[in-house]
């Protein structure tokens, strides 16, 4: 899943980004409201961690503009303000959740996970596709009860496939949600990771290619022609 961190403190933004990246999220960073809006209107993010105290536009104004444009991206507001009135303003501006500074990083991650599970359609913490089970809290995958050894990025890609099982997912969509803005669209990185996942998942195949369209994840139907 792809997140945007909007925080004017470079040190704080870098710390949050590093921590979330260790939890398998693709992360971009903006240090002002204007920069955040530019990124949000160009890229597809699953969630925004948004500081209120920004040097140009406030986080509240960024949130209001997003909602005015019809954006449904999930917004978690971070601020040093902890008065009830400030929380109400944030939620009224369109935020989905609110976390006051200083905060526990574990709580931040838990709130991010909870919001992403909720999204527009509730997603359970345990995802199952055939005999594959993903525990999104522990970020572990098992197949037929056997633990699959995955890198952070392999897990992120597998979780995205699992969340979207049963529909064809194109390369551009994968790059938008599993990689950050530094991803080179001309590279073969996605194909490399797909090949790694196929090998680690073993058989029968769960991940198949629809030539010219993308990838389909899930058990093959009886009348479906498998492809590599």
Description:
It is a single chain. This protein starts with a strand and ends in an 11-residue tail after the last strand. The model has no long low-confidence stretch (mean pLDDT 88). It is built from eight helices and twelve strands. Strands 2-1-3-4-5 form a five-stranded parallel β-sheet, sandwiched between helices. The protein has a four-stranded antiparallel β-sheet with strand order 6-7-8-9, covered by helices on one side. A three-stranded antiparallel β-sheet has the order 10-12-11. It folds into two domains: 2-118, 3-Layer(aba) Sandwich (Rossmann fold); 126-217, Arc Repressor Mutant, subunit A (Orthogonal Bundle), CATH 1.10.10.10. With 228 residues, it is an alpha/beta fold.
Brief characterization of the structure:
With 228 residues, this protein is an alpha/beta fold. The protein has two domains: 2-118, Response regulator (Rossmann fold), CATH 3.40.50.2300; 126-217, Winged helix-like DNA-binding domain superfamily/Winged helix DNA-binding domain (Arc Repressor Mutant, subunit A, Orthogonal Bundle), CATH 1.10.10.10. The chain contains eight helices and twelve strands.
Notable features of this structure?
8 helices, Rossmann fold, 39% helix, 4-stranded antiparallel sheet, 22% strand, 5-stranded parallel sheet, 228 residues, alpha/beta, single chain, Arc Repressor Mutant, subunit A
Helix count?
A: 8
Order of helix and strand elements from N to C terminus: EHEHEHEHEHEEEEHEHHEE
Based on CA inertia axes, which overall geometry fits? elongated
Radius of gyration: 19 Å
Mean pLDDT: 88
